[in-house]
Amino acid sequence: MRVWQADFYHHPQETSVWKLHICDATMTWQYTASCSQSEANSQWLTAQFSQAGELPEIIQVFRPQALSLIEKAAENLGISVVATRHTPALKKWLESLNFPVKIEKIPPIPVPEILWGESWRFGSLPAGDVTELLEQRPIPIVQAPEHLLPLNLGLASGQTIPGVVIYGGKMSMRLARWLAENHPVAVDYIPGAPDGLILEADLADRWVLVTFDDQDMQAAAQIYSQRQQQAKGLHFLLVQPDDSEITYSGFWLLQKE
Description:
5-stranded mixed beta sheet; single chain; alpha/beta
């Protein structure tokens, strides 16, 4: 399948010129073009896509400000667009050109209280058990991209993968569906007053999962964060009705950028 990673934006110091950057995941092919701000529309993008080369089946976009225009242009050509923060080749290329890739962080908002479960805890899995869990447990909702599987990240089977486990009770499936609709990216520990866990989702959304000021929980959160770093940012989010370990509602394999 042919996949493009694309960005269409202006440099903060050169707002009158918009630049299109397209590449493939291996950076063996790149395409660039620029236009004035008055030309920066879906019609211009459609023309550029048409002449860039063999059209892809999918265009991946990481920048929220570029998404709408690229979606309109792609629709004109029958191309699917995937909004994802995971465009490593494109971001590395843009950084080499001194083009901004960081997305401004918006203040997080609480997860709707009606969705929240009964309790939660930090958890962990040996890297070697992740694939077995996905293959042997019937889990209704799963997000485990192939590029995030521990083996594909070069992690040893005994490497500890940290995670957050939510016991949803009667709300377990409803919470799992809500998470699936919002496309979790990472669960970050943020120290503060109080400390908290922030869910990064979609391209730029941020949600407060929980807050806490208990010293034991703070210590556990620090271990969770350290284990993330040791596992190349890899971690998981698991939603299940209770602690029986019999039924799972949703599982997400995530990676902190």
